[in-house]
Amino acid sequence: MNQGTKNLLKHYKFPFNHTVPAQKNVSFTAVNRACGDQIALYAVVEQHTLKELFFQGKGCLYCIASASVLCQHMKNKELQEAQEEVKNVREWLLESDGKPPEGVSEEILALGEIKTYPTRIPCADLAWKGLEELLKKYFLTEK
Ligand SMILES: [Zn+2]
Predict the structure, then answer these.
(1) Which of 44, 46, 64, 114 is buried most, with the most CB atoms less than 10 Å from its CB?
(2) Is the pTM for the entire model greater than 0.90?
(3) What does CATH list as the number for 3-142?
(4) In the chain, where are the structural domains located?
């Protein structure tokens, strides 16, 4: 087992920001019925920056670990940058021969292992898809 995979297991056991924050600007719930995964994301946005991203939910290892990695990775990201990164990671996860985006962490790269089990890709993708929808929702209500 490589370091990235070990870290994913750690994220599953001790998820990062796995709570509903007192302060939140926007939330979105994403569901993957095929596996029974459900993730609610809560974003704290200040001055076009994703100060913190929290999540609550239940799901399989890949779903929870992926949500935890996402929340850690997106902390203090500028909104446009977060949107761009989500898009790049999702393209890579969903395309069978896609290249991993540059500069992503070992944990994110380890998520790519899911590509050998195509039916489970929606599990790893769920939180990222959720953040994409959350940001869309934020930009719509902000304007
Ligand atoms: Zn799942």
Answers:
(1) 64
(2) yes
(3) 3.90.1010.10
(4) 3-142
